[in-house]
């Protein structure tokens, strides 16, 4: 039982770490001489431009930013609630509250990655002055980590739903 508990805790912390890296790091769209993410666009590793309200379709970028931040916060809250429920739940009860919050984090990261997947091309085309040199790029590791974090949070949420407290 202790091994299972350690695995669940490590799995949850890994999910949170993936969400932090995917949200913070600047590698959602990368190429030879540039990298772009949900916060800024950098050309030649020195010339960085923050994304602000002058960007067309900035509301789309804000939606991705907000849902990624929300997913990270929800994942951390779910971990804290799990730790509290370890001491407060009666034997045989399920970790339903932790599961619901973790699945909400899963939903948020899925929404963020889906919006970015669908709208990235439109944002780049409508802001040619900012994204002029980014046409030959590909999805970066932060984008991939966001999708991996989606899978991890989903599996973690299901584990909490199935898990019962034992002695």
Automatic annotation (TrEMBL):
The keyword Cytoplasm applies. One of its GO terms (molecular function) is protein kinase binding. Coiled coil: none annotated. Its main location: membrane. InterPro entries: EMP-2 (IPR003933), PMP-22/EMP/MP20-like (IPR050579), PMP22/EMP/MP20/Claudin (IPR004031), PMP22_EMP_MP20 (IPR004032). The chain crosses the membrane at residues 63-83, 95-116, 139-163. The keyword Iron does not apply. Keywords: Cell membrane, Cytoplasm, Golgi apparatus, Membrane, Nucleus, Signal, Transmembrane, Transmembrane helix. Residues 1-16 form the signal peptide. Pfam families: PMP22_Claudin (PF00822). It is a multi-pass membrane protein. GO terms for cellular component: apical plasma membrane; Golgi membrane; membrane raft; nucleus; perinuclear region of cytoplasm. Gene3D superfamilies: 1.20.140.150. It comes from the Eukaryota. It is found in: Apical cell membrane; Cytoplasm, Perinuclear region; Golgi apparatus membrane; Membrane raft. One of its GO terms (biological process) is positive regulation of integrin-mediated signaling pathway. Functions as a key regulator of cell membrane composition by regulating proteins surface expression. Also, plays a role in regulation of processes including cell migration, cell proliferation, cell contraction and cell adhesion. Interacts with PTK2; regulates PTK2 activation and localization. Interacts with ITGB3; regulates the levels of the heterodimer ITGA5-ITGB3 integrin surface expression. Interacts with P2RX7 (via C-terminus). Interacts with ITGB1; the interaction may be direct or indirect and ITGB1 has a heterodimer form. Belongs to the PMP-22/EMP/MP20 family. This is Epithelial membrane protein 2. It comes from Ovis ammon polii.
């Amino acid at each position: 039982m202790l091994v299972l508990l350690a695995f669940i805790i490590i799995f949850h912390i890994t999910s949170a770490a993936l969400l932090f890296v995917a949200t913070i790091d600047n590698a959602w769209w990368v190429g030879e001489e540039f990298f772009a993410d949900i916060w800024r666009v950098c050309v030649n590793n020195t010339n960085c431009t923050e994304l602000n309200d002058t960007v067309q379709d900035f509301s789309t970028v804000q939606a991705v930013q907000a849902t990624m931040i929300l997913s990270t916060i929800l994942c951390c809250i779910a971990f804290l609630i799990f730790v509290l429920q370890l001491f407060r739940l009666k034997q045989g009860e399920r970790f339903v509250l932790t599961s619901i919050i973790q699945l909400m984090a899963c939903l948020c990261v899925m929404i963020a990655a889906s919006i970015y997947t669908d709208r990235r091309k439109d944002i780049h085309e409508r802001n040619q002055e900012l994204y002029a040199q980014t046409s030959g790029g590909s999805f970066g590791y932060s984008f991939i980590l966001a999708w991996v974090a989606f899978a991890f949070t989903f599996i973690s949420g299901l584990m909490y739903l199935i898990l019962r407290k034992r002695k």
